[in-house]
Amino acid sequence: MQTKTLVDGHGIINEACRILPDDSHKIKFMEALGELEDSECHKSRTFPKTRMHPVRGAKQKVYRADIDKISGWRLHLQLIEGKLYLRDIIEGQKHDDVLKVIKRKKIRYK
Amino acid sequence: MANEQELISKVISDGELSEMIKVIKNNKISKWNEVVYDHKEWHSSDGNSFQTLKTADDTAYLFEINSDCEISVLGRLYDLMADLDLVIELDDGCEHAFRKLSEKERDEIIKKAEYYGELFVTDRTAFLKDAHQPVRFRLDDKFDSSLYCFGINQGTRIIASVDDDPIFKSVTVTLLSVFRNGDTEEKFKSVARSFYRRQFADVKQI
């Protein structure tokens, strides 16, 4: 398996080991890291485990990836010069974005 | 593409290059609220690397100075955009007001949103002239807001986030509010707070 560079400059792996509630979440966290590093997922733009998707509303390229869909534990990552940086581990939240696509097209350039 | 070094020296002067290197070096030692994201025709999403479009021999090229202050040609704009999607999205907080508009008004808003999304990619300097941020927000002490207010016609304005996404190769315009009257700044603050509350633990107005 080819890998995409994942950088942990803020001690998020250490924090995850400390704050995730049980071993099952810690295993899911490791699986999530595996998927985020997998260049095949990046090539095909599909992230079935983490459902990685961009966070709207931030100038920086911020992504959200699920650790566990049910409890809502998730990661914030930032893409800088082609590398994914782990930025935050977040406990489950009540809301999720409800965004409806009303139009999709290729960008035109003349 | 012509030889990369020749292309760079053709359109970017030594003065312009050293000016940008100075900006990048200053950003590295700046506190977050002093970081420069836009300098003349150069734009950055994180204050680390800067990009700009320049035309040589009638062809638009995208140039980048990375965080190590090395300059390169990322490619022809035409090629870079070949696989790029423009997506217009509607936030659920905006849906009710949007659906109440006439079909003509909805079409006008979608067309303008498309226009701004394309301008974001093809001419960031022109985009920033039209995109207005009445107040700025800092998110979780790390990120900056990409929410803007745009005029649609004489009476109507929209608040939308404009985000580019290199992993899924898209630029997304997310409509958060459509409004006609009232205090734009107050409206912007209230829309931003409601939107960000769902995504970030800490939202500061700066």
Topology:
The complex is a heterodimer of chains A (110) and B (206).
Chain A: E1 6-7, H1 12-19, H2 23-37, H3 39-44, E2 53-54, E3 62-66, E4 74-80, E5 83-90, E6 99-106
Parallel strand pairs in A: 1-5
Antiparallel strand pairs in A: 2-3, 3-4, 4-5
Chain B: H1 4-11, H2 14-29, E1 38-39, E2 42-43, E3 50-56, E4 59-65, E5 71-76, H3 77-80, E6 85-91, H4 92-99, H5 103-122, H6 124-130, E7 137-139, E8 143-144, E9 147-151, E10 157-165, E11 170-179, H7 184-197, E12 203-205
Parallel strand pairs in B: 6-11
Antiparallel strand pairs in B: 1-2, 3-4, 4-5, 7-8, 7-12, 9-10, 10-11
Helix pairs in contact in B: 5-6
Describe this protein's structure.
The complex is a heterodimer of chains A (110) and B (206). Chain A is of the alpha+beta class. Chain A is built from 3 helices and 6 strands, in the order βαααβββββ. Chain A has helices at residues 12-19, 23-37, 39-44, and strands at 6-7, 53-54, 62-66, 74-80, 83-90, 99-106. In chain B, a hairpin with a 5-residue loop joins strand 4 (59-65) and strand 5. Chain B is globular, with a radius of gyration of 19 Å. By secondary structure, chain B is of the alpha+beta class. Chain B contains 7 helices and 12 strands. In chain B, helix 5 packs across helix 6. The interface between A and B is large, with 38 and 52 residues. Strand 6 of chain A pairs antiparallel with strand 6 of chain B, so a sheet runs across the interface.
